[in-house]
Design a protein that fits this description.
about 90 residues; mainly alpha
Length: about 90
């Protein structure tokens, strides 16, 4: 489960950054299609990331602070990359 969380964290972070490209395309160039697909992928990855954080947090008995910060990382650009680098890779399975 930890490896799935790490992969999902990276993919969720990439999809979040891609929204920074597709949103201007949607609103300034009237191209909604890229944003539709990236937005859908980001939504699925966001839910998967949050679910996996809760599952892994309960399995590895994380404290409330680490659990909260891991969930908060999904709301900040580059946050999931930081969470993976700082916390997730250091956890022993």
């Amino acid at each position: 489960m930890l490896q799935a969380l790490r992969i999902t964290a990276i993919l969720e972070g990439i999809s979040y950054l891609l929204l920074g490209i597709t949103m201007p395309l949607k609103y300034s160039m009237n191209m909604p299609q890229p944003n539709y697909f990236v937005g859908m992928a980001h939504g699925v990855l966001f839910i998967a990331y949050c679910s996996l954080v809760i599952i892994v947090a309960s399995k590895y008995k994380w404290n409330l602070k680490l659990s909260f910060l891991s969930l908060l990382a999904s709301l900040i650009p580059f946050g999931t990359f930081y969470a993976d680098w700082k916390w997730f890779r250091t956890i022993k399975a």
